[in-house]
Fold this sequence. Notes:
Strands 1-7-6-5-4-3-2 form a seven-stranded antiparallel sheet, with helices on one face. The chain is globular, with a radius of gyration of 19 Å. It is built from four helices and seven strands, in the order βααββββββαα. By secondary structure, it is of the alpha+beta class. The N and C termini lie far apart (67 Å). The relative contact order is 0.22.
Amino acid sequence: MREVKVSTVISAPCEDVFDLVSDLSRRPAFTDHYLKDFRLARSNPRGSGASARFLLDRPLFSERAETRITECERPRRIVEEGRVGRRGRSTLSAVYDFEPEREGGCRVELTTRSEPKTAVDRFRQRGAHRWIRRSTDKALQRLRRLLEEPATGVPEQVTVAGYEPHTAPRFGDHVRAPRKMAAADG
C-alpha cells in the first residue's frame, strides 16, 4: 500500500492532543468507525510499549491487526508499528506529528503505511489506500470535534479483558500492595 498522509488543525494545545492520542485506551473514541473490536494487549495503555489489537474493518477484506507505540516524544511525535493480515505477515506503521500553530492550536499530521509480503496480501490491499485516506481523515475530524467540543460524558475507553488492579504486578503494571498492620500498630 502506498503512504497515506492526512492532517488537520485542532484548536487545543499540542500537549492535550498528544495526551489523548498517546493513550490507546481512548483511541476508540475517534477511530471506532473503522477499527472494530479494539482491545488493549497490555495493562498500561499510555506511551512507549503500549499495545492494542483490533479488526481493520474494510469493505470486502477485513483484517486483524496489532499495533504498539515504539516512539513517544511528548508533545511532538508518536510512532506506531505493527502487523496486519493473515498470520501478521504484513507490516504497518502510523506516525503522528504534532506542530504548534500561531493561534494556540495544533496541526496534527497522520502518516500511515503498510507493506504487504505476498502476492495474496498485495491483492487484498489493492485500493486500500483510498479507503485508509477517507477513514483516517474522518478519524482526525472526530478527534478535532472531541477536543474542541467536549461532551458532558467521558469519551469511550477500553481496558484489558479481565484486568484487576490487585493483580496488576503479574501483568507488569506495578502498584503498591496494601500494607498489613503489625500487632504493635493495632
